[in-house]
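Hey, resending since the last one bounced:
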Amino acid sequence: MKKLASLLLALCVVLSFSSVLAEEKTVLEWFMYDHYSNEIWQADPIMQYAQDQTGIVVNVNSAPWGECDAKLNLMLANGELPDVYMNFWYPWTENFSYLVEDGEIVEITDMLDNYPNLKAYVYGEESFRQLFVIDEDGKEHIYGVPRYYPSCANYNIAIRTDLLKKYNLEIPTTWDELHDALATICASEDIAGLTFVGSSWLQALDAPWTNCNGYAKLDDGTWTYEEATEGYRDFLAYFAKWYEEGLIDPDMLLAQSSLHIEKMAAGKCVASIQQWNPDFVSQYRQPLQEMGAEIALIPYLVGPEGTNDFGGTGAAVKAGSGSWLGWQLINARTGNAEKVLEFYDFLLANDGVLTRKGVEGVHYKVNPDGSTTWLDAYYEELERPNSWSFKYDTTGPRFFIDYLNEEVGRLSPLCENADLINEGWAKVLAAQLVRAPYTYQFNSENSINYSSAVSTVVSEWRDAFLTGKKSTETDWDAYIAALNDAGASKIMADLTEWMAAHE
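The structure tokens again:
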């Protein structure tokens, strides 16, 4: 009996020890750009749930956007890579190439069979294939978990619908109609017309004029910057008239997000260029509602020529399915690749319902007929600072609450036209736009030497054209010369050569 008691006691000790081991969590280190601190990350209810269910803890190490590359290079030099880090733009960077060659990055191609949810995600989005490395035998190699902006509009226009009703105006459907609506309202109200954050936000809506996304292929087979096309010239001339007529907020040149938000929230503008971002929504909506104002997003506007847009869709928006493509790269040194993939696989279970809708019973409930009822916690989550960035573009696999989903979009007072916007965007994606592929990375010597100077020329001259300090009729040739002097022609020669070899 004593021996039996001793054996039972020993068994209890073993079981107790095993239980302790079972409760131990794997800690993973993530490196990303700085939208929020690790404290905010850990406080997120979806993250809490995912960590509790998987036993995998994700700690965030971040850096401000402009300092990410420098910090990452320092980490590479010191051999201090975390388990996962974001390749912030495209796969074809020098760091990426070197890391692949040196075996520092885990290739997950053959590992995906063990993670069906993740595999379905990786192969389910066609744009991801632009990230895959194709060897000489034509085999695809996948070196991380893809990340992207889902297929949606990055920018739209929000407008005061209460002011439209006051002056018996309909929701604009063309840029000319928006112009006339702003002119009518501003003539009678002490209020600015269209506001935004810097002239680059206005350029984000130049699609009906340029019919390209970043770069344009000319008839002779060469490539040029979008900002050097005749369509872009027409775009600048069109809105220079708006500025001259006082329909564009002169403060837009200050390029301060806080000022943009403050003016909209205070009811000092009729309309704004609006990122599809609940962070902005939450800051506009309540103050406007308190003053009795109403606001809605405008479906895509048709350009002045009627058909001078993407395939006749009237989509006044930068296009690009899966724009901001890039990897979440897994460090081969830490030995935690399986845990990283396991965590992603969990997030993507049931078509990513956790990351799209939240936790069942907390953020939503499923009704007997299969429909969804959103709970208060869901709306609280949308209103939480950085919720959009946190769910939308940072961690990789659809890590965002599904307010882009048609049934969700309709629920937001600001997004009452979400279904129309999503419908228009689908047409944009189907238009087969001519553009440089995402796998082209400007990492040539010319790009390194001249890209910053070219961007400066574009920005300075864009402001000058819009404000009337320069004329698209008399100063355009000087602008093109300034672009080329800054290095644009050299960079475009690189792109033309690369495209000729890969098209």
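Residues 74 and 80 are 8 Å apart (CA to CA).

Sorry for the duplicate.
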